[in-house]
Amino acid sequence: MGNTSWTSVSHFVLLGISTHPEEQIPLFLLFLLMYTINISGNFALIILIISTPHLHTPMYLLLSNLALADICFTSTTVPKMLQNIFSPTKAISYMGCLAQTYFFICFAAMENFLLAVMAYDRYIAICRPLRYPMILTGRLCAQMVAVCHVLSHLHALLHTFLMGQLAFCADNRIPHFFCDLYPLMKISCTSTYLNTLMIQTEGVIVIIGALAFIMASYACVISAVLQIPSANGKWRSFSTCGSHLSVVALFYGTLTWVYFRPLSSYSVTKGRIVTVMYTVVAPMLNPFIYSLRNGDIKGGLRKWMRLFFSFDKTSKHSSEF
To answer: CB-based contacts of 86: which residues, under 8 Å, 6+ apart?
Structure first.
């Protein structure tokens, strides 16, 4: 089903998370549920931010962009995986595979850059609170988001171009649920030295650079918070960072485990499981992390609910007449 000759690959076969027939329906239902929660949760967060005037600040503009990136990130892989569960061929075209790789890398990088910019926002808010409106203006925030988009696309273009230079001469079966870099490089029959070099140099600079920036920002934040005399003041200042730190830990913890290791030591089986964590589970949890740990979001949700129930009661009362 999957064998082709040198450079004549027209499609790949995505073997998915499991090849056991009895596990297909449970996997389909599980991932459909997680995908539905992800889409609805992140869309609700975006709509809440747009419809609530007091959330029209740089922090929440960045958060709405992160929610949009999460939707796109998961939508790059999960719909095709759900389709392939019941497909007899489980095929994806060669160009479709490269396109999936491109958008997957792009939205992963987008989340990486946005998390770094959000850390900068928290640094200014806590360490330079009086100058916050002057420093982090709406114009600067929009410019930083635009730079995140440009850098993400350039990063994705580099790695997708290098992937397009590889030849696949014997086996076109990918033991994964989407066209990820390492599984594709594993089945290539030409040298992957340049691809690996770029992942472990440019890729490391992009991801570790952003992570180092986040850690430096929070080192300054912690230093500033420790100078606040009251325990209540310290807790209130640092509580605004708790949601962001939770998302950072979940995203970078799984991402670095998958990619920052030699190709020879990459385990496809373990890689699949960990990849699910940052491609499906983390984007699904993000809106809940921000909603449960953020007073402004919870306040906006309560106001939303009150408006909804008051509208519902008004509608019922009108229908009685």
So the answer is: 24, 28
Token pair 């990486």 is found at 112
- Alpha carbon distance 266, 275 (integer Å): 12
Name the strands in the sheet holding 173-174, side by side, starting at the edge strand that comes first in the sequence: 91-93, 11-14, 173-174
For residue 80, give the nearest of 7, 17, 168, 19 by alpha carbon: 17
pLDDT score at 2: 44
297: left (phi over 0), alpha (psi -120 to 50) or beta: alpha
The pTM assigned to this predicted structure is: 0.86
The closest alpha carbon to 9, from 110, 78, 127, 96, belongs to 96
Residue 286: name the closest of 66, 108, 27 by CA: 66
Query: Residues, the chain, total?
Result: 321
Structure tokens of 38?
């992800």
190's enclosing H/E stretch is none
Q: How confident is the model at residue 145 (pLDDT cuts 50, 70, 90)?
A: very high
Among residues 136, 160, 259, the alpha carbon closest in space to that of 201 is found at 259
What does the pLDDT look like over 161-219, one tens digit per residue? 999 999 888 788 998 899 999 889 988 988 999 998 998 888 888 988 999 999 999 99
The residue with tokens 């890398």 is 105
The token pair that represents 303 in the structure block: 């106001």
Q: How far is CA 83 from CA 5, 75, 220, 278, in A?
A: 27, 12, 47, 21
Q: What is the dihedral of CA 93, 95, 97, 98, to 10 degrees?
A: 170
> Pick from 28, 74, 110, 67: which is nearest to 276 by CA?
74
Angle (CA) 230-235-241 rounded to 5° is 140
